[in-house]
Design brief:
mainly beta, Jelly Rolls, eight-stranded antiparallel sheet, seven-stranded antiparallel sheet, about 5% helix, allantoicase activity, EC 3.5.3.4
Length: about 325
């Protein structure tokens, strides 16, 4: 055991990490790589493709090449060490692996990341064992790419390090759209699978069913939710979280606002239409006028785990909150 294992796992699903791509996952799903729990094994649990493994496992290669998976870190930061765990993969572990890192802006698709730098050089692996690799690269990392040579299974990938926050996202204020702060859903185009109230619920969604999901659209329209904010305010950060929505995340989204004190029909852009990635917590700095209501439009349909609108209440908004407090606590 090394000292850096005490540092947080930057790739863990528990902090928002996700496996955004793998070239193959025929025998076992890539998402298992970042599960926070230790891997388990249950004997004689066979599915349509063979024994079910708690890890990522690719098919046997019959031609030269390697298999790869790209992981988006939930907490970008400086990596100090990596654990490649082949637990329970005994006759089907990869003989070698290496790990690369990338530092990118925004939320690109895996094939849009073109500049990778080494974190762990090509190294030999053993079956059913944790492998600990020191990392000396000092750059901030947002994504890692695990390569196994030539194929096989890896149970978990742990990426331990020190988080480094983007200062542009460190804005003060409160979540003006939070249910617990007094915001309410004012309207919704569709709530076939789950309630839009989930969008503004406390905490992070732990499964897809804890978000808002619409039916599949078969027309030219799009789905939307409108929210009456907890108080009039100025939004400084928009968070659109598609965590757990993988094959059913919206392709794009926008957020508009209005100040109903002035004109309830005068809507303006808070966040223009923006491309989204599946299973990703997106955070966007914005600079909006004062708003009392917000509307999230998703294109064309799909699911969203959470909507956060971080900002500062206006003096009128704060007075309103204080008045409601006084009326309901006396």
């Amino acid at each position: 055991m090394t000292e850096w294992t005490r540092l947080p796992d930057l790739a863990s699903r528990a902090v928002g990490g996700g496996v955004v791509w793998a070239n193959d996952e025929l025998f076992a799903e890539r998402e298992n790589l970042v599960k926070p729990a230790e891997p388990v094994y249950r004997s004689y649990t066979f599915g349509h493709k063979g024994q079910i493994y708690d890890g990522w496992e690719t098919r046997r290669r019959r031609e030269p090449g390697v298999d790869q998976a790209v992981i988006r870190l939930g907490l970008p930061g400086v990596v100090r060490g990596i654990v490649v765990d082949t637990a329970f993969f005994k006759g089907n572990y990869p003989p070698f692996c290496w790990v690369e890192g990338a530092q990118v802006e925004g939320y690109p698709a895996a094939d849009e990341i073109t500049e990778w730098f080494p974190l762990v050089e090509r190294s030999a692996l053993k079956g059913d064992e944790k492998h600990f690799f020191d990392v000396t690269e000092g750059r901030r990392v947002t994504h890692v790419r695990l390569t196994i040579d030539p194929d096989g299974g890896v149970a978990r990938l742990r990426v331990h390090g020190q988080p480094v926050a983007d200062p542009r996202l460190l804005v003060g204020g409160v979540d003006l759209a939070a249910l617990e702060n007094g915001a309410v859903v004012a309207g919704c185009s569709n709530m076939f699978y789950s309630s839009p109230n989930n969008l503004i619920a406390p905490g992070q969604a732990t499964v897809m069913g804890e978000g808002w999901e619409t039916a599949r659209r078969r027309d030219e329209g799009n789905d939307w939710v409108s929210v009456q904010l907890a108080a009039a305010g100025v939004v400084r950060l928009v968070e659109l979280d598609t965590s757990h929505f993988k094959g059913n995340a919206p392709g794009w989204a926008s957020v508009s606002g209005c100040d109903a004190r002035q004109d309830p029909d005068a809507w303006f852009d808070v966040l223009p239409r923006t491309r989204l990635q599946p299973d990703t917590r997106h955070r966007f700095p914005v600079d909006s006028p004062e708003v009392t209501h917000a509307r999230l439009d998703i294109y064309p349909d799909g699911g969203m785990a959470r909507l956060r609108l971080i900002g500062t209440p206006t003096s009128d908004g704060l007075s309103h909150l204080q008045a409601v407090w006084a009326e309901t606590t006396n």
